Amino acid sequence: MALVSADSRIAELLGELHQLIKQTQEERSRSEHNLVNIQKTHERMQTENKISPYYRTKLRGLYTTAKADAEAECNVLRRALDKIAEIKSLLEERRIAAKIAEIKSLLEERRIAAKIAGIYSEAEPPRKTMRRGVLMTLLQQSAMTLPLWIGKPGEKYEVDDIDEEGKERHTLSRRRIIPLPQWKTNPETDPEALFHKDQLVLALYPQTTCFYRALIHAPPQRPQDDYSVLFEDTSYADGYSPPLNVAQRYVVACKETKKK
After folding, report:
1. Contacts for 152-160: CB closer than 8 Å, 24+ residues apart
2. Percent of the chain with pLDDT over 90
């Protein structure tokens, strides 16, 4: 039922995205006429070789309209990007749900086979664990599908702490929880949102599910690039491993412990 619900929502979002794309084209067509008027006004000014009060007033009005048109188009594009991010999230959730269902089916088949062979007891069921290769693949795909952050001028990031939810395993204070990034940073437009070279961080060590202390060797240069980090490792002479790549999603701030 969950997969059917996701498919229905994806179809709905695709319809909304289609309308937003059409609206974007309409906004762009509307602004093109004004841009042509700006260009023609500048050409007339160059021909007359003077900037009269008339042209100054006219250009001020044209540029004000152009700015409003650009902002309107930008707002529509942002709404379209939000729809795309939601669609990608739903597709990822659906894919993971299908993978989990597949794994459960395989485990059930093994349980039945083991029971038939006489090596399975209902009192001690086999431990259900996800294969390491599958888990590593899921982590990597989750990093690749992280949506790109496109902020407005002067806009800051907001991070919500995760409250305790369920008590199946551990109970932790929010102060001990470091949330993973919800957006991918574009180095060209928001470089201040990236960790800088030699900054101390916690990073997911490749092919594991554990975060370790590391230094930023080089930040991403493009949205799709990874961080290059140096993990703390006493087996090397300088105390750090060679540079290793870690996706933006799995690099978080490291809080220095206070010395007593």
Report:
1. 157/183, 157/193
2. 32
8 A C-beta contact, residue 218 and residue 197: yes
Separation of alpha carbons 46 and 49, rounded Å = 5
Q: Is the CB of residue 195 less than 8 Å from the CB of residue 227?
A: yes
In this prediction, residues 96-120 reach a mean pLDDT of 72
C-alpha angle 135-136-140 in degrees, rounded to nearest 5: 120
* Residues 6+ away with beta carbon under 8 Å from 193: 149, 157, 185
Phi, psi of 56 (to 5 degrees): -65, -45
What number is the average pLDDT over the span 5-10?
83
Instruction: Please identify, in words, the CATH class of the domain defined by 183-253.
Output: mainly beta
Q: Average the pLDDT over each of 54-58, 66-70, 84-88, 171-175 and give the range with the smallest value.
A: 171-175
Question: Domain boundaries in the chain?
Answer: 2-117, 183-253
The pTM for the full model equals: 0.48
Is 228:218 a contact under the CB 8 Å cutoff? yes
Q: CA–CA distance from 143 to each of 94, 139, 214 (Å)?
A: 16, 6, 19
